[in-house]
Amino acid sequence: MIDFEGRNVVVTGAGGGVGSALVQVLHDLNARVIGCDVEGADLSSSAIAERLHFDLGDDVAVADACKTICRNGPPCAFVSNAGWTRAETLSDITPDNLTREIDLNFRGAALMTQALIPEMRNRPGGSAFVFVSSVNALAHFGNPAYSVAKAGLHAWMRAIATEEGRNGIRANVVVPGSIMTNAWTHRIEEKPEIMTKVKRLYPLGRLVEPVEVARAIAFLASPWASGITGATLSVDAGLTGGNLPFLELISD
């Protein structure tokens, strides 16, 4: 049984679909969860021990949040889960939304980890960073600015894993595919047939659930993954394992 033994674990995007599931999973594993999200996000879950509202695009707010996080000692794990995108295709990209999406999906996470690394070095039992990426970082499924930012998290993770391993710090990435969250509810309401079409892309024949992604994150953040660093773990119902519609097409 994974047991965080009351240690602090920081989660950004804690009010979202995956974030909420992760908060509960970590709480059930005896972590003391520090939940972070923007103003207005719902952080009312009783599984959250400490709540911080700030914008990852605000450098000063990020620095202040890191100081608050460490005031009672460094966390044993930091999960960069926050993510946001609106620009669907290249034609939707503007200088403003390019900056915004890179700031929220990469730059804020990079600045937070950079601030926390000195505090998390040489902890008894080690420390862990887990970055929640996306299949968009591995192949093009739309949202180019978001995809670039998520791909940047992979390089950042490898830098931490390589340079900080000697200091007892591990870093890994979880790569979800499409996740069955509220983001899909409105799509299904508008196009009831969309899920039938989307499911064909996935070898498991379905989208992954938030809790499935959360369990993978919790594992990599825990001592059970003590020998794993610099790794990428896909939780995508098989999407990146192969192209099922292509296989069916050439098999007909």
Describe the structure in your own words.
Helix content is 42%, strand content 15%. It is an alpha/beta fold. The chain has a single domain, classed as Rossmann fold. A seven-stranded parallel sheet has the order 3-2-1-4-5-6-7, with helices on both faces. Strand 1 (8-12), helix 1 and strand 2 (32-37) form a beta-alpha-beta unit. It is globular and about 60 Å long.
Strand content of the residues, in percent?
Answer: 15-25%
Question: CATH topology, which one?
Answer: Rossmann fold
- Largest sheet, spatial ordering of strands: 3-2-1-4-5-6-7
Which percent bin holds the helix content? Answer: 40-55%
Oligomer: single chain
The best one-word shape is: globular
State the secondary-structure class.
alpha/beta
Distance between the termini: 46 Å
CATH class: Alpha Beta
**What kind of sheet is the major sheet?**
7 strands, parallel
Cα gyration radius (Å): 18 Å
Low-confidence stretches: none
Instruction: Please provide the ordered H/E string of secondary-structure elements.
Output: EHEEHEHEHEHHHEH
According to DSSP, the number of beta strands is 7
Summed up, the domain count is: 1
The CATH architecture classification is 3-Layer(aba) Sandwich
Overall residue-averaged pLDDT value: 95
Provide a compact summary of the structure.
This protein has about 250 residues and is an alpha/beta fold.
Helices and strands, with pairings:
Elements lengths: L7 E5 L4 H12 L3 E6 L10 E6 L5 H11 L7 E4 L14 H26 L6 E6 L11 H21 L4 E8 L5 H9 L3 H6 L10 H12 L10 E4 L8 H8 L1
Parallel strand pairs: 1-2, 1-4, 2-3, 4-5, 5-6, 6-7
